[in-house]
Design a protein that fits this description.
Length: 125
């Protein structure tokens, strides 16, 4: 099992991801791992919801990727993650521990995206 000693790893410098773990989670989302999606990166920003942190960890490990013990423990305890990508291509991953908090944050995002998408209607475009 590719779980190594160590704490959280950070990204190698300025770039698309805040950390190595964010990049691994993003990779899983690209393989159909998002349970729900909202928005579009060029306009409102793209958001993805992935439930079951332990399942996300297993998907990472099944791909042969390496995570630290601290990263594995964080995902095992997580209710899920919310990913976002902006129009510049920068990706953020919010690992959420409690299901109630995950659901509340996701519902807020969906409402904001719906509102933003509705603002463009009726412009005559």
């Amino acid at each position: 099992m590719p779980i190594i000693e160590g704490d959280y790893r950070t990204a190698r410098g300025p770039g698309k991801f805040d950390s190595d773990l964010d990049e691994l989670i993003w990779g899983i989302s690209l393989d159909g791992g998002a349970d729900e999606e909202a928005g579009e990166s060029e306009t409102t920003g793209w958001y993805g919801l992935m439930r079951d942190g332990a399942g996300i960890l297993q998907s990472i490990l099944d791909r042969g990727e390496t995570v630290t013990k601290a990263e594995a423990a964080l995902l095992k305890r997580a209710a899920g993650v919310i990913l976002s990508e902006d129009s510049q291509g920068f990706v953020s991953v919010d690992i959420v521990q409690k299901k109630r908090t995950l659901d509340r944050r996701w519902n807020e995002i969906v409402a904001e995206v719906d509102e933003a998408e509705g603002e463009g209607e009726g412009d005559g475009w």
